[in-house]
Design brief:
The protein is α/β, with parallel strands linked by helices. The chain has helices spanning about 5-20, 40-45, 60-70, 105-115, 155-160, 170-180, 200-215, 225-240; strands at about 45-50, 75-80, 120-125, 125-135, 190, 220, 250-259. Strand 1, helix 3 and strand 2 form a beta-alpha-beta unit. Helix 7 packs across helix 8.
Length: about 260
């Protein structure tokens, strides 16, 4: 079975147009048109659109397309200037050029060629006005639960994750063991962080200093209350009840301009 390429298909289309098209004057006019009707928008009747793909720059034949425009007697062309990517050497911040463009200018190249043929040219761009509104009434929808409790809270899971000071387990046990070996653990389970010299891991000591400054009063003594605040914040940040609720009300309104 024979196949036909895109180029052959276009050539057949050009031949059909040449055989069947009605002859048009080079610059057709609207009967009775005044000066306001002399613009390109009234002179151009036969248009063609060429939509670039990202890998077209450097890989397409502009002369082929310009010859095709002549064959079908196109009077105007709509060309891809840009969108998500640019087909010209844009200097607009955050507007990405086609990775195949290099030092070239595919859009400009086609514009200049069309101008030589006396054609009108439109550069195609994308512009979007959008409103993204979710959960407008701000329902607090529960979408999941702990299987063990049938609730969004699970104290056993919390204890398993961070430990318990009463049972000397988990993160509390690890902290107190390290602090005890450094001679920094007091009887009330507070940890002296004023010096990291005796700690087996001074990095750990410095990290604890920062945690004490963030969740305590920054005096260098990591009290039991400050330890609990630190570990519970960690748990709530990664495993808290917020995971079981649908997103709260969100409204985004904006204008997106692609060129």
């Amino acid at each position: 079975m024979s196949t036909i390429s895109r180029r052959n298909l276009l050539q057949l289309g050009a031949m059909a147009a040449a055989l069947n098209a009605v002859r048009l004057p080079a610059t057709p006019r609207i009967r009775g048109g005044g000066p306001a009707e002399e613009g390109w928008q009234t002179r151009s009747y036969r248009w063609i659109q060429v939509a670039f793909t990202e890998d077209d720059p450097g890989n397409y034949d502009p002369d082929f397309w310009l010859r095709y425009f002549q064959q079908i007697r196109a009077q105007g062309a709509c060309l891809s200037a840009g969108g998500a990517i640019a087909f010209y050497p844009t200097d607009v911040p955050f507007h990405q050029r086609s990775s195949y463009l290099g030092a070239g200018d595919s859009f400009g190249e086609m514009v200049r060629g069309c101008r030589r043929l006396g054609m009108a040219v439109i550069g195609r761009i994308d512009a979007t006005l959008y409103a993204d509104i979710r959960n407008l009434l701000n329902f607090r929808n529960v979408v999941n639960l702990f299987a063990e409790t049938g609730d969004v809270r699970n104290d056993l899971n919390r204890e398993k994750t961070i430990g318990s000071p009463e049972k000397v387990s988990g993160e509390y046990a690890a902290l107190w063991n390290e602090a005890g070996n450094a001679g920094a653990l007091a009887a009330d389970k507070s940890v002296d962080l004023t010096s990291c010299t005796a700690w087996s891991s001074q990095l750990s000591c410095v990290s604890l200093r920062r945690a004490e400054a963030r969740f305590g009063n920054g005096d260098g003594t990591f009290t039991l209350a400050e330890q609990q605040r630190t570990f519970n914040t960690f748990y709530d940040s990664f495993f808290g009840a917020w995971r079981f609720y649908a997103p709260a009300r969100q409204v985004r309104i904006g204008f997106e301009f692609k060129f």
